[in-house]
Amino acid sequence: MALGCLVSIFSQVPNFRTLVCFPKRTSPSGPLFFWGYIFYLSKIVEFMDTLLIILGNSMKRLSFLHVYHHSMVVIMSYVCVNSAQSSFSMVLVTNCTVHVVMYGYYLMCTLGVRPKWKKMVTDFQLVQFWSSFLIMAMLAFYHFTGSGCSGILSWCFNAAFIVSLLFLFSDFHAKNYSPKVKNA
Length: 184
Description:
- This protein has 184 residues and is an all-alpha fold.
- The protein has one domain.
- 74% of the residues lie in helices and 0% in strands.
- The chain contains seven helices and no strands.
- The radius of gyration is 18 Å and the shape is globular.
């Protein structure tokens, strides 16, 4: 998916500005948006996994972060693609890359191998959120200094969503990877 989106980016997007800021009234169609819809469908599959865990009475395996993330990302993916939100393709590529690393880690655990890079998976996710902010800042700059960008309203919702994920993943990181303080 990330590779398909990259091929579409390099073959169809004329410059970096257009990659970050689709022209206003861009239609959500064509190869780039095809990959956006595939991404959206993949998020439905991820949510179905969460739903199966809930229905299987394995709630102790789930955290608020997990349920919130997997349910909201389905909604945000749909909104971003259907509103032709600018920069979605860059976020799609980074998110897919993070998920390849994450699911690679989970596969190794399932096979009985315990990789020593568990913390790196969460670090990589946090880097993804910070890079999303950088991309969104460029989009805002191009929007307000040019003739506007497509999907700016969904950009606002996405920015709020990314902020919430950054806080939740940072909290998860602090609770799981910070050195424990011993009582004196």
